[in-house]
Specification:
Elements: H1 3-19, H2 22-29, H3 34-61, H4 65-89, H5 99-110, H6 116-138, H7 149-155, H8 158-175, H9 180-206
């Protein structure tokens, strides 16, 4: 079994829980309150800014030139697409990271001290979970009556599928050349970041934020 298959099996229950989140179900139905979606987009902008740095850092650590080029592409082309989406839905930037956003980005950046295979595994859920959620919604939603159609189309797009498949392949290749201990740490990083995806959407829906006294 490939590492990616093992990692997905270990985290599939988290993905199933994500599909049940009110943020996801209401977005699919087109009934998600706009203020919740805009709040999410604002936090996602802050997240993407840090995520881009992590992708570039991974590129600098990869020995294979094609793999490094792929990650530099993820950090430029993919981020540009998301920024375009953010511009459609949000006119003003959010200045303060929510606790969930800070938690997630800090977890990703902490992997820079790990084996590059572990750092790479940690960023994969942001590709894979979004692709699966996008495809899940695209199979059932009404594109003519959903204010979030552009978001849904972005994450169910064939180009995003290509990037996701490439990222999975790189992770699997790295997993073939590491010890069992590193491979397990790859899996744990993947599972933890799948949890962060759940937390990110739930936090945006609930408007979980810092107490005014410590903001």
């Amino acid at each position: 079994m490939k590492w990616s298959q093992e990692a997905w099996k270990r985290s599939e229950h988290i993905y199933e829980a994500i599909l049940k989140l009110p943020f996801v179900t209401e977005l699919a139905a087109g009934t998600l309150p706009n203020e919740k979606f805009v709040r999410y987009i604002g936090q996602d902008s802050l997240y993407i800014h840090e995520y881009c740095k992590v992708l570039a850092h991974i590129a600098s650590r990869l020995n294979d030139a094609e793999d490094a080029e792929s990650f530099l592409g993820f950090a430029s082309d993919g981020i540009a697409v998301e920024k375009n989406l953010h511009a459609m839905y949000q006119k003003e930037s959010t200045e303060t990271m929510s606790p969930a956003c800070l938690f997630y980005t800090s977890l990703l950046k902490a992997q820079s001290y790990e084996d590059v295979a572990v750092e790479t595994a940690a960023i994969l859920p942001c590709f894979w979970i979004y692709k699966e959620v996008g495809d899940h919604i695209a199979r059932t939603y009404n594109p003519d009556n959903n204010p979030y159609s552009d978001w849904i189309k972005c994450y169910s797009d064939a180009a995003f599928e290509t990037s996701n498949t490439r990222c999975i392949a790189i992770c699997d290749k790295l997993a073939e050349h590491v010890s069992d201990d590193v491979r397990e740490r790859m899996t744990q990083a993947f599972v933890n970041c799948c949890r962060m995806e759940w937390l990110f959407w739930q936090s945006a829906y609930d408007d979980t934020k810092w107490n005014k006294e410590i903001e």
